Amino acid sequence: MAMSLDRPNGNTCPLLLVGLWAHTGGMKNQRIRICDLAGELHVSSRELVRGANALGINVIRAVASLSSGQEYVLREAVKSGQISRKRQEPPPPPRRYVPLDDPAALREGRCQCCELPYQYKPLDESNAICRDCEPHYERPDEEVSRKLARYDAHATKFRRLMEFYRKDCYEQRELVDAVYAKRDRWMQALVEVVLAHAPDEKRGGCSCGAAEYPCVTRRHIYSVNKGIASRIEELEGMNEREFNRVLYGEDYSHFADWDDSTA
Fold first, then answer.
1. Is 90 exceeded by the pLDDT of residue 122?
2. What Å distances lie between residue 180 and 173, 174, 177, 230, CA to CA?
3. Lesser CB count within 10 Å: N end or C end of the chain?
4. In this predicted structure, what is the pLDDT of residue 103?
């Protein structure tokens, strides 16, 4: 006896037609995973699993496979709104800046708008947008005026940073020069002290009055650093003009390797 697809009122049941079409080869016998279908339909996998169970399709995980008929049912459910799609909304604005009372709680980040590093407090500030970029960070379908304002703000910020770094570099250069000047004065004083302990050619011994040469001071310099002691001896053998040029002039190449720490 042939099975009828007609309802008592004479209309054909659509679900029976779908099942018969799939059974007779109208749909290819291919299976698709829930996670893949969710990505195609722009629905979260969790929401699709929940909707499938509500429609009588027993699945537990997003990697579960669906038959062609089950796939059709879920596609229709998404199309009709029974299963909600992901809402495409612009990112929420960053949290408002709150004065930082605890420096230890700061975190380091890189702004996704200006791409510069910045510090933020995790519970009060955004970890994606710095405070300077809060008014103009990029949004989907933004107006041209907002984009231009962002570019102008970035240019102003970069110029301000360049000026800060230029000034800081100049101050560091002055600090280094001052440190080198102090080093030179210490070096000059050391050389003059050591040369005051030269050998006394008239009385013998050391010029400082010690009976023997080298005296305790000379021997101590050798014990501390033989490299420095050797450079002092080289200066000692120069004439007065060459000595003053090297020690008090602008030519410090003679002292280039004084810090060799050769003990």
1. no
2. 11, 10, 5, 22
3. N
4. 54
DSSP H helical ranges for the chain: 14-23, 34-41, 45-54, 68-80, 144-195, 216-224, 226-236, 240-248
Q: Is 5 in a helix, a strand, or coil? A: coil
Q: At what angle do helices 68-80 and 45-54 cross, to 10 degrees?
A: 100
**Tokens read off for 214:** 């080298």
When divided into structural domains, the chain yields a total of 3
Query: d(Cα 227, Cα 206) in Å, to the nearest integer?
Result: 22
- Whether pTM > 0.70 for this model: the answer is no
- Domain limit, last residue, from 139, 166, 193: 166
Look at residues 49, 72, 44 and name the one whose alpha carbon lies nearest to residue 59.
49
Q: Which amino acid is at 7?
A: R
Report CA-CA distances (Å) from 114 to 141, 158, 168.
19, 9, 22
Structural domain that includes position 137: 103-166
**Domain boundary, last residue among 114, 139, 166:** 166
Asked, for residue 224, whether it belongs to a domain, the answer is: yes
pLDDT digits (tens, 9 = 90+) for 148-202: 999 999 999 999 999 999 999 999 999 998 988 888 888 888 888 888 888 888 8
- Cα 135–chain centre separation: 23
